[in-house]
């Protein structure tokens, strides 16, 4: 029984760095063999906003005709999946209209999509000088810092998100994963509980709280939380695997 529990604990600790990549890239499996320097963020939180944001701006939001021209060219480039060209045009928008945070977000999104993560980070840093409390910008830069394993700095930005949007389950979830990496397990567990409080239908909150239960030997709690995760997302394979291990330990 002890050997099985040791196996579970070892497995959980091995996948912790990869868990951050999982949450950022919105994957459903743990990519344990991926290099953080080569991680593809094209499906990250930042990028998922691009379709939502595109098309919502109209000429009345962009008073300078030069900015509007660059905006139209940027949208055309996005539709053609020419993300580097789109980012160049969003820089043009910002040059003539720097008062809207949405353009900074779109610039960063397209830089990420074109693989220019360092440039995206620099653009986000600049944007935060103008919009220091913007939750979307802080979330995006936090994601990049987490992938770089600059965990304390990432936490700082996720906390800004939480301060601006106390109901941000994603910011709590990623903060909890980082606390795990830093071996602050009690803080991690409390943070996962916050995920469930602000978003009871979030299966990942139950999944990661169950991981903490396993690490601390609270197997009955782990079983309950894993079952809750699977009720919400039956195809969550890691929850099924951990639940099988817990049931094996309990006999």
Automatic annotation (TrEMBL):
Q: Which InterPro entries match?
A: TPR-like_helical_dom_sf (IPR011990), TPR_rpt (IPR019734), Ycf3 (IPR050498)
One Pfam family assigned to this protein is TPR_16
Question: Record's PROSITE patterns?
Answer: PROKAR_LIPOPROTEIN, TPR
Record key words, sorted: Repeat, TPR repeat
Name the SUPFAM superfamilies on file. Answer: TPR-like
Write the protein's name. Answer: Uncharacterized protein
* Organism of origin: marine metagenome
Q: What is the lineage of its organism?
A: unclassified sequences, metagenomes, ecological metagenomes
